[in-house]
Design brief:
This protein has about 180 residues and is mostly helical. It is rod-shaped. It folds into two domains: about 55 residues; about 90 residues. It contains six helices and no strands.
């Protein structure tokens, strides 16, 4: 038995589900009247088949992992990119996003927590370093004050010797006769 929908129509639907302005299967189903499960099945069947022209492909600095790649094998950069990309998606779009990449929402939550923990640790380490710097600067100011005080005392001691002579000196004063 043949399909009710032509190949051109299916291809048109698939093109609308990929790229920067991708629509979810549910959204397309509302617009076209085709059951969303049918549209999703078309997308699964087309997995790995080129359905978009090069012009409409999403450009990204981060390589997208292939769907057969396990989430555990993703690089940190790919995980971060996925978390950031998924953050702005509505529920329906998020579902399509997760299916397209072979992920579960749990993966995104774990990765988001990992990123936040790393940022918090980095921030705490920075605060500890800042506290150390402040402590060292206080100690340096204290030592500078003590050094200035010691220098002032030496200058006063020298002036006192010039005025009154050296009290510890047991020698007779010289006469200039």
């Amino acid at each position: 038995m043949g399909s009710v929908y032509s190949k051109q129509f299916k291809l048109k639907m698939l093109r609308q589900m990929v790229g920067p302005n991708a629509k979810s299967a549910v959204q397309l189903a509302r617009e076209t009247g085709v059951c969303h499960s049918t549209i999703s099945r078309w997308l699964q069947a087309a997995n790995g088949v080129e359905v978009v022209s090069n012009k409409s492909k999403r450009k990204s600095d981060v390589p997208r992992p292939k769907p057969e790649k396990r989430p555990e094998d993703w690089t940190a950069e790919e995980k971060l990119h996925a978390v950031l990309e998924a953050a702005g998606l509505a529920d329906e779009e998020l579902g399509a996003f997760l299916r397209e990449r072979g992920l579960h929402e749990v993966h995104l939550k774990d990765w988001r927590e990992t990123v936040l923990d790393s940022l918090n640790q980095h921030q705490r380490a920075g605060k500890g370093e800042n506290n150390r710097i402040r402590r060292l600067e206080r100690e340096l100011r204290r030592k500078d004050k003590a050094l200035a005080e010691a220098a002032a005392l030496l200058v006063l001691q020298k002036k006192a010797r010039e005025i009154w002579g050296d009290a510890d000196d047991d020698t007779e004063p010289r006469s200039d006769k």
